[in-house]
Structure formats: structure tokens, C-alpha cells
Write a structure and sequence with these properties.
Length: 110
């Protein structure tokens, strides 16, 4: 809950060129809590904010776009990820959406 409050407070600053990062953090927190509809709502706002400022690098905009596609495919599948997470992931894969991580990995996969 504190993560949502902190990031939500930062996301409220409409004019900030890095607002998209706070919006993404709120989305990721909802995704971690397996609240997919809320995660998607905040991710779409992050993507819009990212596209509105030069401070958002193009590679981050691409990552956000993929993240939104992933959440959308999962939500549209109608599968509850709390009940069947494997089927939820498979639905995303069937939709042709590559799964991504928002956080950078410390090491490269082997």
C-alpha cells in the first residue's frame, strides 16, 4: 500500500517530464498484486505520459507499449491469473505478445 501511495503521489504531478515513471511504478505494483485491470489502466496512462515528453527515451516507450499489449492480451483472455497463472501466461503467448520485464536484470540469461 505504501508503494501505491508514494508512486501515486508522484504521478499526480501533471507537468513532470518523468511522470511516466511514477505511473509505470503504480502499474507494476498493481501487476505484482495481480490486479490486472488496474495495472493496465495505469500502464496506459504511463504510455501516454511517456509519449508526451522528450524525457522518455524511445526504448522505454517501446517497453511500455509491449507491457500494455501484454496486460491487454491477458485481460482479454478472461482467465483469472489468481486462479490459473499458467493459463494466463499462455493466453498472452497465444496472442503473439512477447513477455517482458519492466525491471532490468542483473545478469544476462544463459
Amino acid at each position: 500500500d505504501w508503494a501505491l501511495r508514494a508512486a501515486g503521489s508522484a504521478a499526480a504531478h501533471e507537468g513532470s517530464p518523468t511522470r511516466w515513471q511514477s505511473l509505470r511504478a503504480v502499474s507494476a505494483t498493481h501487476a505484482d498484486r495481480i490486479e490486472i485491470a488496474e495495472a493496465l489502466r495505469w500502464a496506459e496512462r504511463a504510455l501516454a505520459a511517456c509519449g508526451a515528453h522528450e524525457a522518455c527515451p524511445s526504448h522505454e516507450e517501446v517497453r511500455l507499449r509491449l507491457y500494455v499489449q501484454q496486460l491487454t492480451a491477458g485481460l482479454e483472455s478472461g482467465i483469472d491469473p489468481k486462479v490459473d497463472p499458467a493459463a494466463f501466461r499462455e493466453a498472452i503467448n497465444r496472442g503473439g505478445v512477447r513477455q517482458i520485464r519492466l525491471e532490468k536484470m542483473d545478469t544476462e540469461p544463459e
